Amino acid sequence: MTSQSSPVPRLEAFAPGAALVTGAAGGIGLALSRALAQAGMAVAMADIDEDSLGARAQELQSHGHRVLALRLDVTDRAAWEQAADRVEEDLGPLHVLCNNAGLSALGMTVADMDDAYWDLTMRVNLDSVFAGSRVAARRMAARGRGHLVNTASISALGLCSAGTAAYAASKYAVMGLSEVLRQELAPQGVGVSVLCPGPVRTNLWKSTRRLRGLPELDMPPADSLRGSASPTALDPDLGVSSFSVQ
User: Fold this and answer.
1) What is the CATH number of the domain that holds 199?
2) In sequence order, what are the residues at sequence separation of 6 or more whose Cβ sits closer than 8 angstroms to the Cβ of residue 2?
3) Domain that holds residue 89
4) Distance CA 98, CA 110 (A)
5) Residue 146 belongs to what H/E stretch?
């Protein structure tokens, strides 16, 4: 994984405050939650998949970490304020927000993509980063400390491929939004980083199929072995460890 940002302090610098991670039921979000918990932070793990989220949160709790499982639809802007209130009531001041929830495009071309899926991808991949960052930035700036970590992609660095139009466009936009946030928040003591992973082994391909109304599969189709479904994709815990504790 690569990252673009101003210098990133060690995670321990934000302990014992709270971190909120979206898309935390698996993949990069789960790896981020583990890294934050191991650094001594209380972690709110947010996801729309309550069953998987509960199981993953229990795993971290069994290792003595302070964890809150929080169902959150990141496309619901009103829910963000409520989520932040819950985190601060239960875990303490919000010092780190990881905007990580996302969707892929699974090979759909621009000509084949319908309006509904384009709009959904933008709501999940981009609008949620705006909504979450706005809520968190106000709280962090008032305290003069905090850090936003926005998950983009190597697509945001120009490494795009056919069949990823909605995904690539949303990740380019996350990069632009984050660059502006960095400039706006730096004078107030709040940092911003962009996480730009290449292929990472996650269940993103499964959740994307589900949202597209495609049949559930245990293994990805032979013609879709790329991105999160690639057999050579990076283990998310290894990738996050190299990024998040520098």
Assistant:
1) 3.40.50.720
2) 154, 157, 196, 197
3) 2-244
4) 29
5) strand 146-151
HEC string of 112-141 equals CCCHHHHHHHHHHHHHHHHHHHHHHHHHHH
Specify the residue for token string 């790329």: 226
List the catalytic residue out of 14, 80, 117, 167. Answer: 167
- Residue 45 is inside which H or E element, if any? strand 42-47
Q: Is 167 a catalytic residue?
A: yes
- Residues of the chain under the 70 pLDDT cut: 1-13, 15, 105-106, 199-246
d(CA 87, CA 20): 8
Nearest residue to 126 (alpha-carbon basis) of 105, 99, 97: 99
pTM above 0.85, yes or no: no
Q: Considering its fold, how many domains does the chain have in total?
A: 1
- Name the token pair of 235: 């283990």
For residues 228 and 27, is the Cβ–Cβ distance under 8 A? yes
Q: How far apart, in Å, are the Cα atoms of 73 and each of 22, 77, 91, 123, 216?
A: 9, 9, 20, 10, 21
- pLDDT mean across residues, the chain: 83
State the pLDDT at residue 228. Answer: 47
Which parts of 39-157 fold into alpha helices (H)?
A: 50-62, 77-90, 115-122, 128-143
**pLDDT, position 154:** 86
Asked whether the beta carbons of 197 and 205 are under 8 A apart, the reply is no
- How confident is the model at residue 65, as a pLDDT? 97
